[in-house]
Amino acid sequence: MTRSSTEMTYLEAISDGLRESMRADERVFCMGEDIGVFGGAFKVTDGFYEEFGEDRVWDAPLAENAIIGMGVGAAVAGMRPVCEMQFADFVACGFDQLVNVAAKMYYRQGLAVPMTLRLPSGGGFSGGPFHSQNPEAWMLQSPGLKVVAPATASCAKGLLIAAIRDPNPVVFLEHKHLYRRVKEQVPTGLYETPFSARTVQAGERMTIITYGAMVHAATEAAQSIDGVEIIDLRSLCPLDTAAIFASVEKCSRVMVLHEATRSCGIGAEVAAIIAESCFESLDAPVMRITAPDTPIPFSPPLERATLPQPDQIKEAIHELLAY
Amino acid sequence: MNSSPTNSSNAGDDDNNLVEVTMPPLGTSITEGTILEWRKAVGERVEMDEMLLEVSTDKIDSEIPSPTTGVVEEILVAAGATVDAHTVIATIRKEGGAAPAPTEESRAALDEEAAVVGELPDEMPSNSEPIDTVVSPSAATPPSAEVDAEPRRRSRDRPPISPVVRRIAKEHKIPSGVLAGLAGSGRGGRVNKQDLLSYIEAQKSPPMPTRPRPVLHTESPYREDGAPAAPDGLSLMRRKIGEHMVESLHTAAHCTTVMEVDMSEVEVARGDRYTYLPFVAAAVMHALIKYPALNARFDGDTLVLHEEINLGIAVSLGSDGLIVPVLENAHEYSVAGLHARFRDLAHRARNRKLEPHEVGSGTFTITNPGRYGALIATPIINQPQVAILDIEAVVKRPVVIDDAIAIRPMCYLCMSWDHRALDGALAAQFLAAVKAFLERGQFGA
């Protein structure tokens, strides 16, 4: 049965995934700052208040710990809350409820926490240090949380629907800079995208393992270069190690690329498991291209110098190929 | 040629953003290249993929793009020099973020490492490429805003074998000596995965037919524009002629036979109108028809006789070199016809106006440098022919005829011939036929 599709931006796809999930399952409800009457800071929940009412679209006070804490409680009681931090950076204010309560509840008390936490993340628009971060590594260091980061509109919708249905707490990193810049044909109705990697383009000379906004930067950088494979991880926990290993064994030269800062990021994790499991497939040291260990600047030229750019990635590709 | 970037005086600087430019292998069977021209000078900025230099092999000229954006730091090999593929020929300081300023303690550490690095050239084997950098400064310095530079290894020997190369070599039971001897296309001559896989593939398939021997003619290459002179004064043509001469000596089993000829009949016939050359050419063709083994070439091990006689006549181009224009089907011409055709060919040869079919199709070559008075020479065969005839000076001498002394214009015909194709007896018989034709005098001119 071929599914109909329609062109949607990344933002519209997220909105559509949430709306369809709420229509299909009355246990699903939303909590966040300005998501109700205002329709959301980025308009993801525009029209939701009108369609689903104030019982299912909660305008929360400026209290991230409360948002996540209440989400945990609702989830444990049988609901499917979709909590939003207005900016991913603010998850720091709700961190205790996320990593100590939500993540560990099942281990401690055998209670599932089927909660989804939406984090609008990433920079590239002069948001400054409090509005531009990619904090996935904080969550990845907390066992018990799943973490996903879509790069395309159709992946965003499918991953969100799957996250809502997942009995585990799932952190959903939606990259703000992709909201309106990425659009494609997205299937209508309900569908799930698995928590696994996808191959953006196949190659055999080297592979770029990446996710989120950097998938597009990598594609642009590799445009005129032959033989570059690009893997979009999509899911950071669980990590699709089979896809990673297969790509490394084929290509033997690896670049791990992410917008998040360098030290102890997902790049470090991927590099480590490659060294552990694919050592004999490596023809060059694993290369990491990331933002440096610095807060994200507000100033546009400084921000450009901080976040990995296609030119810089292209030069790194040449360097790796020449090794 | 061994280049040692570690010899440079800035070995103490942070070399994390110094990019090496190497002579690329310009073809699978090409192992060296000649730098024709540097497009950028030291201190000039160059963009990635912008043309940096032009290199030449004996088959093609190529423009080489810059591997990075930055400023040319050092040119290690000058224009005109020929180096092996993978030799480092220049360095470029990559732009996009200066290296972080070293602290006091890291500066001391750098100086210490520079001292160690400075010792390396004495110890390295002569054709290795050191992987050059200094380990980046300690973590106390602020991170750079550019692409994170990874500390690269200092290597004292050949570049290391990567894990995948080692594994594949082991799986295919390739001895480490063989592995060490492979040419690598990775940085610094490193054998990378693809190099090894290509080698393994080549071993599997039936042996490649030896690449066709480049056609060796003393007249090639023939360039309209006149190649730029190399710093040692040899034009490109001169060097190519030299290479082909050497290869001819390595191919044929050269012997030279000398026959003395009485040129009095030729003197009478030529008068003021002709030189000796058309008469000798006519005699040669008469003899080639009688002894076709000298009008032949080797096809592998088989001697293939030519059906036509395409006579090449060597023409001097002054200090640039020489060229051998070819008169096709020369046996169809009379002495007068030969004379006219030779003059035309020589004139057009000196003015670089030869047609393609007039260069390279020869089956036998005659060279005649005799006007300077040399008596005997041992010419080098013009491959892929099997013989070449040199007419030296005609000198009046006292000779014995019918037990009396007479004065005759005598000339030595010196023929070098390939002992793979014939032996001395046949060479002598051929020359005897040439001599007989010239001394008989009925040229019908």
Explain this structure to me?
The complex is a heterodimer of chains A (323) and B (445). In chain A, 36% of the residues lie in helices and 21% in strands. Chain A is built from 12 helices and 14 strands. Chain A has a 7-stranded mixed sheet, with helices on both faces. Chain A has a 5-stranded mixed sheet with strand order 9-11-10-13-14, with helices on both faces. In chain A, helix 3 packs parallel to helix 4 (95-102). Chain A is globular and about 60 Å long. The mean pLDDT of chain A is 97. Chain B has helices at 104-123, 163-171, 176-181, 193-204, 236-251, 264-270, 277-290, 335-350, 424-440, and strands spanning 18-22, 32-38, 45-46, 51-56, 61-65, 70-75, 82-84, 88-94, 254-262, 296-299, 302-305, 311-313, 315-316, 322-323, 326-327, 364-367, 387-401, 404-418. The two termini of chain B are 59 Å apart.
Q: Helicity of chain A, in percent?
A: 25-40%
Cα-atom radius of gyration of chain A: 19 Å
On the 0 to 100 scale, the average pLDDT of chain A is 97
Q: Fraction of residues of chain B in helices?
A: 25-40%
Largest sheet of chain A: 7 strands, mixed
- As residue ranges, the low-confidence spans of chain A are none
| Strand order, sheet with most strands of chain B | 9-18-17-16-12-15
Pattern of helices and strands of chain A: EHEHEHEHHEHEHEEEEHEEHEHEHH
How confident overall, as mean pLDDT of chain B? 78
Which descriptor suits the 3D outline of chain A?
globular
> Rg of chain B to the nearest angstrom?
31 Å
